[in-house]
Amino acid sequence: MSTLFQPYSLGPVRISNRIVMAPMTRARNPDGIPNALNALYYSQRASAGLIVTEGTPISNTAEGFVFIPGLYTPEQVAGWRKVTEAVHARGGAIFTQLWHVGRVSHVSNQPGGIAPVSSTAQIARGSQAWGIRADGSAGAVDVSPPRALTTPEVKAVIQDFARAAERAVEAGFDGVELHGANGYLIEQFLNPLVNDRTDEYGADTIENRTRFLLEAVDAVIARIGADRTAVRLSPYGGLFDMGLYEDVAQTYLHLADALSARGLAYVHLMDQLSRGSTPIPPDFLSSFRRQYRGTLVLAGGMTRERAERLIEEGLIDLAAFGEPFIANPDLVARLRHFWPLKKADRSHHFGGGAMGYTDYPAYEAA
Fold first, then answer.
1. Which helix (H) or strand (E) is 274 found in, with range?
2. Of 278, 201, 196, which Cα lies nearest the Cα of 243?
3. Which of 72, 184, 201, 252 is catalytic?
4. Given CA atoms 230, 235, 237, 242 in this order, what sign does their dihedral have?
5. 306, 22, 82, 344: CA torsion to nearest 10
6. Does an H or E element contain 193, and which?
7. For position 364, what pLDDT does the model report?
8. What is the helix (H) or strand (E) element at residue 179, kind and residue range?
9. Tell me: the pLDDT tens digits for 221-252?
10. Closest Cα partner for 231 from 51, 98, 94?
């Protein structure tokens, strides 16, 4: 049997194969509370070795996308419990992705229409959030100018991550993944072209601009343990005005060492080639693998052939698939048996109800 379909130990969690369902925003929750439809959607895909949920805001100021389920109220915790119970009932494992979008937001996403917060007051040029338009409809809107967090506020956001992680465990999740990728708040601290701070979280040294991420990781570990804590990163990513900078490799290799020492459940790298950004260079992936000694996940344009090759070469441990899981709830079986993959209707990716969400059939029923 291909290694891709063999079980794997993810800390205390034994997963049935090395295929990860990557986090994908689907925007099916106008009230921000997970519901039975979400539980059905994720349980349909529970044959994945590990499911990572859609990005889940850690507070009401962390949001940049309307109609997404959060993790900062008791009602949201109860809603997510329906999801985790449904996935566990089908033998699956599930982490939630803890999300703060930072400056990739719009005033309509913020309580009372306040400005989004970030590491900086620089706007994300050419970027859009998903908010409420002038006519009252939901859709793409240009991001609003952000406000730079004060130093005490940075420390408060770190505690928001920790509290959300604690709520995630209360909701039955097997662990959490901090979203440090794709141009959102954590990466707004990591990137020196965006981070223009002069405090202890500033861009003057790699140690300072990685401090926010590492302190958030440590705060989460203190609440739920390292073996339930993971991080997603997107080195060389360019989404939402994240420009390439000279010491990008050194920055992420510094993180590889620091995160390796913490004994995390895994680190999840996102290759943004499929999103039109610079791909992760093969020599960087090799270097990161040498320095990060824990479980390594890779997402971005993944195929069965690529996943098997990278695992066989020892470059990654788990392979994450995103969009293929939307139209193929039985993706693991389809990959195992070389069955054809159905293509998703992108017009139903965001918003709506069951159509384009839970109505894609398994191959045998197609």
1. none
2. 278
3. 184
4. positive
5. -80
6. none
7. 80
8. strand 175-180
9. 999 999 999 999 999 998 999 999 999 999 99
10. 98
